[in-house]
Design brief:
mainly alpha; 5 helices
Length: 131
């Protein structure tokens, strides 16, 4: 297996341990190298490990993608329909599509506001209970 370049290897202390190894020892993990369950470090009252914080950021970004997808999909479909209508009628004004796209996206946002708020409250509750 080829060696990774120095800039892509994790920093090590004088004994060859990485920072993740130190975080694992601080959390009370076994020296066998097993990865802790999610949020184990937080439950034990220890410092949040690097991989736990990355999981939290990934979950937040996935929730953002999930919540914005319906609104953006409606804007995409309305823009496509208006573009096809402009091509058929040979109207080449770029500002025509803005008002219908904004209006349709606003209507969808108001329509799914209950679902959006439920998902956000569930995520916030999960974050506070796991920390």
């Amino acid at each position: 297996m080829p060696r990774r370049p120095a800039w892509s290897r994790p920093p090590r202390d004088g004994q060859g341990n990485t920072k993740d190894d130190e975080a694992g020892r601080a959390c009370g993990l076994a020296e066998s190298g097993e990865k802790p369950q999610r949020h184990d470090a937080v439950r034990r009252g220890k410092a949040l490990a690097v991989f736990d914080s990355l999981d939290l950021v990934r979950d937040a970004l996935m929730l953002t993608l999930l919540l914005s997808a319906p609104i953006l999909a409606v804007g995409l479909l309305v823009g496509l329909v208006i573009s096809i209508a402009q091509a058929v009628t040979q109207i080449q004004d770029q500002t025509i599509s803005f008002v219908p796209k904004i209006a349709s996206m606003l209507i969808v946002a108001v329509a799914i506001l209950g679902w959006l708020s439920v998902k956000l409250v569930e995520f916030a509750a999960a974050m506070f209970t796991n920390l």
